[in-house]
Amino acid sequence: MRIALSQLNLHIGNFEGNLAKMLTAVETAKAEKADLICFPELAVCGYPPRDFLEFDDFIKRCQQSVAALCEVSKDIAIVVGAPTRNPVLAGKDLYNSAYFLFDGKIQAVQHKALLPTYDIFDEYRYFEPASEFKTVAFKGKKIALSICEDIWNLGNENPLYTICPLDEMMPEKPDFILNISASPFNYAHAKTRIHTVKANVQQYQIPMFYTNMVGGQTDVIFDGGSLVVSPDGQVFDELPYFKECLKVYDLEEVMKGGIHREQAKDKIHLIHDALVLGIRDYFQKLGFQKAILGLSGGIDSAVTAVLATEALGADNVRVLLMPSQYSSDHSVNDAQVLAENLGIQYDIVAIKSVYDAFEAALATQFAGTTFNVTEENIQARVRGTLLMAMSNKFGHILLNTTNKSEMSVGYGTLYGDMCGGLAVLGDVYKTEIYALVKYINTLPIGKYRMEGVIPQNSITKPPSAELRPGQKDTDSLPPYEVLDPLLFQYIEQRQGPNELIAQGFDEALVKRVLRMVNINEFKREQAAPVIRVSAKAFGMGRRLPIVGKYLS
Amino acid sequence: MRIALSQLNLHIGNFEGNLAKMLTAVETAKAEKADLICFPELAVCGYPPRDFLEFDDFIKRCQQSVAALCEVSKDIAIVVGAPTRNPVLAGKDLYNSAYFLFDGKIQAVQHKALLPTYDIFDEYRYFEPASEFKTVAFKGKKIALSICEDIWNLGNENPLYTICPLDEMMPEKPDFILNISASPFNYAHAKTRIHTVKANVQQYQIPMFYTNMVGGQTDVIFDGGSLVVSPDGQVFDELPYFKECLKVYDLEEVMKGGIHREQAKDKIHLIHDALVLGIRDYFQKLGFQKAILGLSGGIDSAVTAVLATEALGADNVRVLLMPSQYSSDHSVNDAQVLAENLGIQYDIVAIKSVYDAFEAALATQFAGTTFNVTEENIQARVRGTLLMAMSNKFGHILLNTTNKSEMSVGYGTLYGDMCGGLAVLGDVYKTEIYALVKYINTLPIGKYRMEGVIPQNSITKPPSAELRPGQKDTDSLPPYEVLDPLLFQYIEQRQGPNELIAQGFDEALVKRVLRMVNINEFKREQAAPVIRVSAKAFGMGRRLPIVGKYLS
Hints:
CATH topology of the largest domain in chain A: Nitrilase/N-carbamoyl-D-aminoacid amidohydrolase
Number of domains of chain A: 2
Strand content of chain A: 15-25%
Radius of gyration of chain A: 26 Å
Oligomer: homodimer
CATH class of the largest domain in chain A: Alpha Beta
Low-confidence stretches of chain A: none
């Protein structure tokens, strides 16, 4: 039996586009003599469809796509994810299902039992868990069909769940496992995923074919890396990360095993590729081509410009250099060098005249007050408005360059440097950005126009917003080497004040930093969507009250 | 037996504050010879605590509050909501529980079984449903203890659930039902709630004491209106809406019944009171006193100013009048009259000079282009920046004045008129705002400084953003009398395109409006939190993808 895995970049709600991709894949698989082709979880509508699932029309269109796939299933079996109406008036209205189509008919429908409802996941908001489990008979084989999370409670060891779906199917002695997934990227997740797939295979002693989705859906990135694992527990094949792919496997070969093909998984390399895909898909799926951003001479905007150039091409990236009266000559120069290194269009627009106009307009109201954060914010907002004006006039999307360290502690101006359609680095700590710079600057020529594309001076100078004379980030914040590990423990690891102090962090610092994080929820609430690369990103996966008074 | 209901305005994560309020209430109830006092759901930590529940320290502090209440329970029983650790490593880590404290001990803990996971609710993200149900014996009575949603599947008629917790307790023949709730406001919900409580009482033929929370938690408003329903199915008492209250009832009197005390529930009156509470609590819970907003001469900003004045006092509200070169004289005049009617401080700051500075700064880049939405947006952003500068300099929170009609179709400038800490009218359609104006203008003197506080001219003139010569909202949008009912059907009623056309809406209009709603998700994602007054508000209760391509 020949089994095709089709790792596709699908688009939420784009029924025509998703169906067209799947029909093409079916033709390719047929040409390669596949008996069976697997598409990802909820492939017909894209993942996560969120509240679109509450619209009857949306579910009907999902079912129309299933019907269209049914029609081309005469000579090939198709496994595809789609929502199903729960026919019973008890429990949630829908199931998250895997359809097994063959011979022009729906042969079987297996619903998902384990519904992730944590972090970015809201599945129990929409879906009823499966309570029935049956293998599917096909060409003399029995197939255990499962959906994403269903393989993540092996041995009932995941405390979130009380059932293990594959255990329920094993009495029927299936020949192999198919899993269709929409498993999102974070820089540690591919390793965990392989571990989990392998552990299932070792437990049940039958091979698994695991198909994952690929592509960016605003903030959430799906990384692909679909897997075939032989009964010996070795990775028979691992599809590429961050790319579409179709590949056909001979079941007999997979059964034999003896092959081990795992790809390297370097954290910074993965983050780089995820961010490039995240930018590219955000533009492509919204129907835009061109990006604009402000280039300050610092490394955050430098890295954003580099990633945007790789994602969209140099012709589609434009930057503004917007020196204030407090900017060093170096800053403009460093930004200019980078723009020239990248071959992207740049303009220099000084902000002083507009800033002065604001000061004059408010002269009466501000009489007798002194320069403070207000004036710093005005400058940041002048920049935001200039960038948005360019964006509006020429059809660019503004890319936001805020990093995770700043976003955590609220070191940024709402409606100023927090403007943008997409926060490229909002899930990357400042110390990780330095690592990203190092990675980018050692990439061989060809990847970018030159080796060492980011100027050394941008890397070595102390970070500064340059909104008052001689300003440094460290005037307001602890050094990033101290701040970032503390933020990581609080945000990603959910450690409270006592645990943090027990870990050796200074008590006063813990109190100060946790307070900064918590009182700035109102800013993050209005921030641009953040491309998710860690296990806990700002956005839909982290939900905190604005008016809370905890640790603040 | 004397039973006290304590309807409190609690604050998420403010353990000291919440505990202090409850201790005071316990003292009052003791003084009034109550045998038992009931606090709302998750009263120790406030509702909804969201991802704070993932911090071990947060749960410990909840338990410390329970312990502190235990200590004062020697002479009075206390029923209070708090999270409980699930001791078993299977299923979610927490329960949402009602604690029954008496004689210095935890006498019983009843967990919640029905966990709302829809709209604004995420309870299954955190909590495991209860599987055990027992009544509590107290002073010769048996009490059926239940938590909020637990009474919302009467007769197993709610398709979301498969169990009815009170049915499980009835074999023990309880004498009365206690329900502790955090049931959020929408303008139709109080009626539904009374209907549900009555239906439970009619089913089980025993009285119910229903304690609800009160207060604003950023976007979500809890309206109070706690209930006592006698076995005859009549409302023995209904506590006030939008106010804290403690009241003690004699069980014998309640058993007798024969009293019916329901308050009137006018939609616009309720919305008015909810918005005032929403503003007041947002400021109070964040520790701010003063609001600023832009007054345009139109009704949205007029109503916002009136509500802010009622919530915070005239001394705490300041407005900017920011005419553009396209503003009519009338607009400034109408705004001035309103500010004087309200007795609030106002400043006039013309935006032309700053706008001109932006145009000059971008002259090279914009050479050869013509005035379009870019220049309109620059003007809106100049206003936003002026308001934020005042806010930063003097410690105001900026109130946003966007209405739901505009927010739905994206008729507003991100970082311009969409700026603000709180969107007061973001869940109120334009046509409802006219009704609100009518209501406000007929309130007796004393409520405001004068009758007819909002100038007639603001009400009668056609809505306009005044960002280009002679601009009217109807240049870009259908008339609000046409637009609003369509938006209501799509947003609140989740009707799809076919249903809308079947309802008689014009097909081209349906297509156009649904597209406008869906392509503007990126703007709403960055909007200020919206005070929720309807059954489907923008914010955490409505979750849609930005890059979706459905009906767009």
